[in-house]
Amino acid sequence: AGSAKEFLNYLCQQGFEPATVQIYYHALKPFLAYLGILLTAKFKKRRKLPAYHGPDQVQAVLNVIHARTGRWSQLKERDMTIVLTLAYTGIRRAELLSLRLRDINFRTRMIKVSGKGDRERTIPIADALYEPLRKHTKGTQPSDRLFPMQPRRLWTIITRYAAQAGIEDLHPHSFRHYFATQLVENGVSLKTVQELLGHADISTTAIYLDVVPKHLSNAVERLPKFALTAI
């Protein structure tokens, strides 16, 4: 059993997918059981890295929305505000759709978000989001939802714009990944990113370090520069 476990561990260390290691495990287990040896093992699913979308992709989506004409043009302001809110806050789809005017404090420029497990957090309103959000909420009552629609409708809106912009695999949650990767890319601490995203476990946030490997170089480049008169 010891040698079998060492073999399975070796496969894991070599980067084999958990599903592949499990195939070997299930192949070995009956044979070892026949020999009277009990083999037990636990497998953790490898977290899939989110697709990377940068500012160019977000801008492309905004351009498509801005180009809307005809009877759909009246929805431009709403849809632009949806994309900007997702991109500048990193909130989840359900959090966006549950936002009400009373959750927005334009004086302090903060948004109160009710996240998973009824955990509340506050997110600053970025300068680029302030005016679009204020315009969108004009005439809205405190208890009114800012974006009254079903989750499926939001999904359709975003994926349709993405398709028109020629962008694959972009959906509402992609903007959460965009928000996180941009923060990491710009040197924001992982702890701060965790707080803004509302992650209970910082290991969930740490996945974005793999999505943006260049953060390591950026971190080193932030060190003080010295004048080298002679070497």
TrEMBL record:
The keyword DNA-binding applies. One of its GO terms (biological process) is DNA recombination. SUPFAM superfamilies: DNA breaking-rejoining enzymes. Coiled coil: none annotated. Residues 48-221 form the Tyr recombinase domain. Keywords: DNA recombination, DNA-binding. InterPro entries: DNA_brk_join_enz, Integrase-like_cat_sf, Integrase_catalytic, Tyrosine_recombinase_XerCD. GO terms for molecular function: DNA binding. PROSITE patterns: TYR_RECOMBINASE. The keyword Chaperone does not apply. Pfam families: Phage_integrase. This is Tyr recombinase domain-containing protein. The lineage of its organism: unclassified sequences, metagenomes, ecological metagenomes.
